[in-house]
Each structure stands twice: as structure tokens, then as C-alpha cells.
Amino acid sequence: LRDSEEQYRLLVESSPDAVLVARADRQILFAKSAAIELFRADRPAQNIVLNLLDLVLPADRDEVDGVLSEILQGKRLQFAERRRIRLDGTEFDSESSGVPFTWDRSAAILIITRDITERKQSEAQLRQPQKMEAVGQLTGGVAHDFNHLLAIIDRQCVG
Fold first, then answer.
1. pLDDT tens-digit map of 58-89
2. pTM of the predicted model as reported, rounded to 2 decimal places
3. Pick from 88, 89, 85: which is nearest to 115 by CA?
4. Gap between the Cα atoms of 159 and 130, Å rounded
5. CA-CA distances (angstroms) from residue 115 to 46, 91, 138?
6. Angle at 30 between CA 28 and CA 32, to 5 degrees
7. Which of 120, 38, 126 is nearest to 87 (CA)?
8. What is the rounded (10 degree) CA torsion for 145, 149, 150, 156?
């Protein structure tokens, strides 16, 4: 049993994703070391005194609270993108999933979150040339149509 528990502990700790467990009232019960780093807690206990909604932008809290209620009712949240807030006030892009969970024989929520800021920035950089190409094609099309109209006007004025 000890070996099995150690394997599972190592499995959880080896994952680069942040893992949080919260009670039904959204109070965080457990925060894995990656969660402590991601949310920039000064110490492990700092995350545990928080409410899950403290890690969500104020404008999104009602919506997220509704999603957390659905998770507690048995719904599984597959990875959803959302802006999050760290304890130091900085924002970041995240991808999170959530599932109903039991902690000390009580209903809880298991949340797995990862920072996708770099991925979003890379995607934006890849889209920029595509946008420029589309603008170039649009501009070329407008110029072609304008020249066509000028040619028609020119023929009518000469003819």
C-alpha cells in the first residue's frame, strides 16, 4: 500500500500541470507544487487559504462559479481556455479541466490547470503573416476592381 501511494504521489508531483482540490464551498484544500508556482504563492499554505474564485478574473467569477456547481453535480469539464489571475495580480492564459472528486469523504472539485500564454503568443505570431496576406489580396482585388471601373469610365468619356 505504501509503495502504491508513493507511486501515485510521484505521478501527481511529476506532472507539470497545476493540480488543485477544493471543497464544495470553493475553499482550496490541496495545491500541488506546480500550482504554487503557477499562481505565484509565496508559500504552499498561501494557496490553501484561498477560494478557487480568487484565481479567476473578477468579471468571470459568476460564470466560473456556475461551472464549478455543474462539476459538483457530476459534470466533467474538458480543457477550457480562460484568462486567470495570479496572486501577484498578473494575468495569464490558462487551459483548465475539472472533475467531481471526493476528499476526506466529502464532495470536492479536482482542477487541473496549465499556463498556455506562450502557446497563445506563438499562435498569434503565426496568424500575423496570414492576416497580412489576406489584406494584400483584398487590396489587390480592390485595386483591380477600381482600375476596371476607371477603364469603363474612360471608354464612355472617349466614346
1. 999 999 999 999 999 999 988 889 999 999 99
2. 0.71
3. 85
4. 43
5. 19, 10, 36
6. 125
7. 38
8. 160
